[in-house]
Amino acid sequence: MSRRRRIRIGLKGKLSLLLALLLAAVVAALSAQALSGIRDDQQERLERTFARQAEAANLRVREAFLTGERVEAKPFMEKNGQRLAVDLGELSGMPVTLYDTDGVLAGTSLPIQPRTDASDALAYTAQGVSAYITEGDALLYLAPLYNADQQLGTVQFHASLAEQNAFYERIRDLFLYAGLAVLAGGFLIGYLYVHRQVNVIRRLNRAAQQIGRGDYLSRPPVRRRDELGELADGIYDMSGSISTSVSQLNAEKRKLMEAIARLSELERQQKQFIGNISHELKTPLTSIRAYADLLEMYGDDPELLAKARERIGMEAARLYELVEKALQLSAMDVYDFETRSEQVELAPLLSEAAERIRVKADAAGIRVESQLQGGIVWADPDNLMHIVLNLLDNAVKYNVPGGKVTLSNRQASGDDGSARMIVEVADTGIGIPPEAQARIFDPFFTVSGDRSRATGGTGLGLSLVRSLAEKQGGAVRLAESGPSGSRFALELPVAAPARES
Hints:
The chain has about 500 residues and is α+β, with helices and mostly antiparallel strands. The chain has three domains: about 10-165, Beta-Lactamase (2-Layer Sandwich), CATH 3.30.450.20; about 250-340, Signal transduction histidine kinase, dimerisation/phosphotransfer (DHp) domain (Helix Hairpins); about 340-500, Histidine kinase-like ATPase, C-terminal domain (Heat Shock Protein 90). The protein contains eleven helices and twelve strands. Helix 1 runs antiparallel to helix 4 (about 160-210), helix 6 packs across helix 8 (about 345-365) and helix 9 (about 380-395) runs antiparallel to helix 11.
């Protein structure tokens, strides 16, 4: 039982076939375009010639009609048709046939009366439209004759297309033979060139297989001054590098493992950093996007335009500062934000945070209320703004339609008797299940996978809030949560700790 041998087309055959197809397509396209242009030019010239002849015939017949005996159009053509046909034939240099308004032959300059059935064309000219009749190399052009709005009859010009068709066929044959010659010559040259390049590739392939067997090269497999020569030099260099690397593999293995351990730690820090900076960037982006949506809906409101321009500018500046800070930290391989605490007027900062989140809340049908009182806290303004915005964003995100978010602050005393400021964010949302409340500040923890996908949560927001709060010398906790909503409490020092004063 014989086994059918599978035909394999190599690179040489594929490239040669591709080259042949490309050459054939180019030659065919150029030939078709040139022949189409010739045919269009011939037709355009013929139409212009017939239009001029029809116009001259109209003038001649109109002149005879107006200067002769006053009769109707049909008797006029019966009486003068033959003479006018001969005159028009001498004037145009083409055989001419005249018909009256009923399509009856009135005269012709041909020695023998034409036998072509022109009834269909005469029906067009009766409507004031010119018409063509083509029979082999013969072409008949029929045009209406008028005296003002009165049709006098139809003039028919006889022309031969033999010369034009012969010229077109000569050009077509010329393109055909030239195209075949170009195709054959190009294919032959391309085949020889491809054959040479494929041989070089085969030598390079054999060299690569030799390296794969552990038999390293003593010289480059090909000497050329082109990309293939560069590839051959690269294979030779690779062979030397592999030979050297194999002998050093055991010594480098230990260093590699240490490097992997360091990279793993760096990767962990980077992931945490990416999560933190993502939350930092999301807040101003959310505000910018919300104002952009408002501008699209109420772009003709001058007050909104001014407010949106101011807010978008502020958020863009904040974005720029965050990106600059992230780039600086990344360049130094430091993946944590610095904290620069100072005395901060709390009420204006909380008002600004409520204003930033209000656009998103309005879009979700959530009401934001503020119950603020004056006071000073010791904190980093940027970090504090991020903490409050994150808590407000969660309160809006996990609320119910028609719900409410309340932002408030109050003075309190810490466990050590020091003055503290409590900032609370309460919502009327869906609440947090009791089994999840102890883990909501853990990195990457989400209460529900479905809820996280719906809101775009990553489980890093509250983890970052707790980290930033602790850097301010404060703390954040879930004060209460249930079916009627949740309340988060942020505790901040009023004065600088003793070590910072």
